UniProtKB/TrEMBL annotation:
Taxonomic source organism: Pedosphaera parvula (strain Ellin514)
Domain of life of the native organism: Bacteria
Region called Disordered, residue ranges: 143-171
Compositional bias of kind Basic residues: 155-171
Protein name: Uncharacterized protein
Amino acid sequence: MTMNDSFQKTYDQASAFQKIWMDSFTKLVQAGSIGLTPGTPPPESLRQLRGSIFNALSESWEDYMRSPQFKESMKTMMDNAIAFRKANNDFFTQAQHAVQGTAREDIDNVLAAIRQAEDRVLNRLEAMAERLEQLEGKVAGAVQNGNPKVSRGAAARKPKATAKKVQTKSK
């Protein structure tokens, strides 16, 4: 698709949009120019006319908003807005790097790496907690069954390495 084709397509869509606005405005002006005084209510025929105009307007607008042209123009507009935002972000990132500053993209990458490391540490801690609960359950079951290899005092004692560390610190 060439630039002229794209321009022509955009022009046609804008023309269709303008035509709908002009038709709507013309119908509204015609409905309001019947010649009523400001304080008097409109007669029933004018109420019906106004209702039919509003119904016709709402139907035409709904048809237009559901039309492929409108959907295509909205898609094009959203794509252009996204492309502009991306180009804007790239420009400011390059400008920050040019003056040897920290860009938002750099900070976002560091934060993502920190979040990933945090998730990995939390997952490991959860796995260790599960293993510890399993071991505590086995020890408690052995104590309740009267297993001679596991006594209540042995399960409650601290490891010997910790006792040695305490002795060396007190010297």
